[in-house]
Write a structure and sequence with these properties.
Elements (H helix, E strand, L loop, with lengths): L1 H15 L10 E11 L16 E3 L6 H10 L5 H7 L10 H12 L3 H7 L6 E5 L1 H5 L4 E4 L8 E13 L3 E10 L6 H12 L12 E3 L5 E2 L1 H9 L13 H8 L12 H6 L4 E8 L1 H5 L9 H11 L12 H10 E2 L5 E5 L3 E7 L2 H36 L6 H22 L8 H14 L1 H34 L5 H22 L1
Parallel strand pairs: 9-12
Antiparallel strand pairs: 1-6, 1-9, 2-3, 3-5, 4-5, 4-7, 5-6, 7-8, 10-11, 11-12
């Protein structure tokens, strides 16, 4: 990683000296990220038939790609490496030893990977390449629209099972158009990221595979979620067969229609890298943004077109956007929004090679780690809602939540995850964008208040029962006890309200 910073510094120095490194080619890829509440690790051993579709992450990494992946893990502090990359050696290892380790891991089926994985570490799986290879490229067709179809490839699809029942489906997609244009990329990302129609008079886009299988993003997601959530349906390992099967299943058996699906996953979150020639970034209209480059960044991150009056921002919106722009270098800048993070670069050798690699290998992991914290905090808030009339069940549930939160504090709440300056800066921006610090403080206070409140009620009920059991032996004493109980009952009603 020292080499990375040396190249980064020299690249900027060459540019300032006037040496032109600009290229005319463009590049795009995006990660579609879907967070979900996974089955508890202790109860999920990969026994579902659909689990056979998944392989250990190293199944798609070999040779130079694997070697670079192993080197990239040193971007993180050791305790973060243990969480995110539990199968990576703690120190540099010979290629021969790595090859032996990879061979052993590839022999494990999904159930064995889960069984051998530590409960406090990430399980990172990848979808069998053969399942999607025959379907690439996909064509995105907007129903009820005259817009031109867009073609794209799903380069890989990964499943990440974090501790504390937080999971992610991550798809890497890239435009297959021969000429990459920002507005076409925006149209593609809007279409593929939408899981539910925004209104009743609109329809989501159709994904048409090379084998003429037609489905939408939500149906593909349900295919990948099989066996990993509490939703139960017969497993189908073929995408073609699954598309036919899901359309006859009741909504109650589909995760995306359930409470967690509707709360946390109404659309894919998007993490994008886009490199364009300088002429496309610097020659277009800029208003109302400060530069044409920032205008492209705004349209790409919000997936809107400023040519449409309905989406023209106010001055306050423009000011707010200016504050979230990450602009530390001359050849790239970024914007981190709650649902879309974009790295927009000028096409140069450095940005097309090194920066694009860093976005995928380092910055995406930073974002997923931040999103893991966000989702776990959100799940805690949902679990705090109590509608059970039983005081005892509510108290025991609150104690369980408190115990789980303490574990979360001790093992997974990370103020820092890397000492690399750029990584530390981006991690802070991701945390702020997701409001993790504020959510953490509020959740901590709510858990303390809830447990304290229920403990007081519990202690009062115990006191009443003790008074009745060892209570009065005379009528007068009984009357005094009843009066005392009536007073306590009024106090109890006050606590209830």
């Amino acid at each position: 990683m020292l080499l990375f910073y040396l190249v980064f510094s020299l690249g900027g120095r060459r540019e300032r000296m006037g040496e032109s490194l600009e290229l005319e080619q463009a590049r795009h890829f995006s990660f579609l990220i879907y967070p979900f509440r996974s089955l508890p690790r202790r109860t999920n051993r990969g026994g579902d038939g659909a689990a056979s579709n998944w392989r250990h992450l190293w199944h798609r990494l070999e040779g130079d790609a694997l070697a670079r992946h192993l080197d990239d893990t040193f971007f993180f502090l050791p305790y973060i490496r243990d969480l995110l990359f539990p199968d990576v050696p703690a120190w540099p290892t010979s290629p021969k030893d790595i090859a032996v380790r990879r061979e052993k891991l590839l022999k494990l089926h999904t159930g064995q990977v889960l069984t051998k994985s530590a409960q406090d570490a990430l399980v990172h799986l990848t979808l069998d390449k053969s399942l999607l290879k025959s379907h690439n490229p996909f064509t995105l067709v907007a129903r009820g629209s005259e817009s031109q179809p867009l073609t794209f490839n799903i380069e890989w699809s990964d499943l990440l099972l974090f501790p504390l029942d937080v999971g992610f489906i991550v798809l890497k997609v890239a435009t297959a158009d021969p000429e990459i244009k920002a507005d076409r990329v925006n149209d593609l990302l809007y279409g593929v990221s939408t899981l539910f129609a925004p209104s009743v008079n609109m329809k989501v886009a159709v994904w048409r595979s090379a084998e003429r299988v037609e489905l939408d993003g939500r149906e593909l997601l349900e295919f990948m979620l099989q066996g990993w959530t509490a939703s139960t349906s017969p497993a189908v390992t073929s995408l073609t067969e699954f598309v036919s099967a899901i359309r006859t299943r009741p909504a109650s058996t589909q995760y995306t229609f359930g409470p967690d699906g509707q709360t946390h996953g109404d659309r894919f979150r998007v993490f994008t890298f886009l490199a364009l020639p300088a002429r496309e970034l610097e020659s277009g209209p800029s208003a109302p943004l400060s530069s044409s480059w920032n205008r492209v960044l705004y349209e790409t991150s919000t997936l809107t077109k400023l040519s449409d009056p309905a989406f023209y921002p106010s001055e306050d919106m423009v000011d707010d956007f200016g504050e979230i722009i990450i602009s530390r270098w001359l050849n790239w800048r970024a914007a981190a929004l709650p649902e879309h993070t974009v790295f927009l670069a000028r096409s140069e050798k450095f940005t097309l090679d090194t920066l694009s690699h860093n976005v995928e290998s380092d910055y995406l992991s930073l974002y997923l780690l931040s999103l893991f914290l966000k989702m776990r905090l959100s799940f805690f808030f949902a679990d705090l809602v109590q509608r059970n009339p039983s005081l005892f069940r509510n108290l025991f549930a609150a104690r369980r939540i408190s115990k789980s939160f303490i574990r979360f504090q001790n093992e997974f709440w990370f103020p820092e995850v890397t000492h690399k300056p750029q990584g530390a800066y981006l991690y802070g921006r991701f945390q702020a964008m997701l409001r993790n610090e504020a959510l953490y403080s509020e959740l901590n206070l709510q858990i303390q208040n809830l447990v304290s409140h229920l403990e007081q009620r519990y202690q009062f009920v115990i006191a009443v029962l003790v008074a009745l059991l060892i209570g009065p032996q005379t009528i007068k004493e009984l009357g005094d006890a009843l009066l005392w109980l009536a007073q306590r009952a009024r106090d109890l009603l006050g606590l209830l309200h």
